[in-house]
Amino acid sequence: MNYCVNDCQELKAALESATKLFTNKTIIIHHDNIPESPLLDVVKNSLNQLVTQATKEDTILIYFSGHGFLDKQIQQPILCLKNTQTNNLATTGLPLA
């Protein structure tokens, strides 16, 4: 999904530029054109890292560019990652709830 990769790269560049003066920041990016592909475990680990390190004064911005589905069995939206299986969304995708 080339457009998604471009979107992620452009947003990363914009955030880096806008936060040049910030003394403490973390920018994590996952897309298909870097060694660490956006696999479910990789993305979950990054999210856990952000939440674990964040304090109540911090702001966390999460941006997703890609596909998602409504899992009809659990009536929840699921974000699709590189290894998501559409016939097994609940365990292979990233739920929004």
Blueprint of the fold:
Blueprint: H1 2-18, H2 40-53, E1 68-71, E2 76-79, H3 89-92, E3 94-95
Antiparallel strand pairs: 1-2, 2-3
Write a concise keyword list for the protein shown above:
single chain, 36% helix, three-stranded antiparallel sheet, 97 residues
Average pLDDT confidence is 90
Largest pleated sheet: 3 strands, antiparallel
Point out poorly predicted stretches.
Answer: none
Label the overall shape: globular
Question: Order of strands in the sheet with the most strands?
Answer: 1-2-3
Strand content: 5-15%
Instruction: Label the structural class.
Output: alpha+beta
Give your account of this protein's structure.
It is a single chain. This protein is an alpha+beta fold and 97 residues long. It has one domain. The protein is built from three helices and three strands; from the N terminus they run ααββαβ. It has helices at 2-18, 40-53, 89-92, and strands spanning 68-71, 76-79, 94-95. Strand 1 and strand 2 (76-79) form a beta hairpin. It is globular.
Can I get a quick summary?
The protein is an alpha+beta fold.
